Amino acid sequence: MKLFRLHDRSVLKVYGPDAGKFLHGITTNDVLGIGTQEPIYNLILNSRGRYVFDFFLIPHEQNFLLDCANADADALTELLRSYRLQLRVRVKRCDDKYAVAVHPNATGGAASFEDAILFQDPRDSKMWMRAIVPTTASVTCDELPDLNEYELLRIKCTIPNCVLDMARNESFPLHFAMDRLNAISLNKGCYIGQEVVARMWRIGAKKRLYTVFSDTNVLVCGQEIFAQGQPAGHMLSTLGHWGLCLLEVEKITDGCNIESGGTHLKIYG
């Protein structure tokens, strides 16, 4: 069984007697419930309910490992440290001790594989399994021969790459299907931005993330999208003929004509 390293990911460690309580109070998911038993997908929002960071949270030896984007690692570390106040919590980067990897198999639950922590991607059961691999482990991580295969699966599962597709301190998580991706607990108590999320959940989000494709042309990130000739949104992540886009829900009706740059688009799924 091969594991393939994701070089754009980093690992943080949050530890100390108050680590669980601390993370539960500032993130969108249920850290003290399911988060103590199995890996979860999680967000930190600002006070206006807008996205700030996303990460996978993995319980490990009474502490927590965070699988986050390399581009976010330093800023996320500093933000977590600033929120500690008097709690007995420490935060550090552990890129010298752990690597993040994937395995092209979407079945199975959390498990240990030759010292690696192997778990199903909590966002969607069709995604490849993920792993946190200690640098001292006997298992080695190979180079992923074709990252496009993994990226295309992400797009087909309608999962945003938050670093590329979402605007920090601006994007609303429900516009990007974070409830469907199991990043938000609607039953837990207060967290930063919770009131905004709850209100949007009640009234419904005005925008929604879609997967689209073209039978003929390569799609272009950032291009404006029109529905029945009216502006409806913009293209986000793209890979060849496939892409993610954020569209106004009320403008997307059954059978409506959707196009971008003169290219006819079809909604996938």
From TrEMBL:
This is Aminomethyltransferase. One of its GO terms (molecular function) is methyltransferase activity. It holds the Pfam family Beta-barrel_CAF17_C. It comes from the Bacteria. GO terms for biological process: iron-sulfur cluster assembly; methylation. The lineage of its organism: Bacteria, Pseudomonadati, Pseudomonadota, Alphaproteobacteria, Rickettsiales. Keywords: Methyltransferase, Transferase, Transit peptide. Residues 206-265 form the CAF17 C-terminal domain.
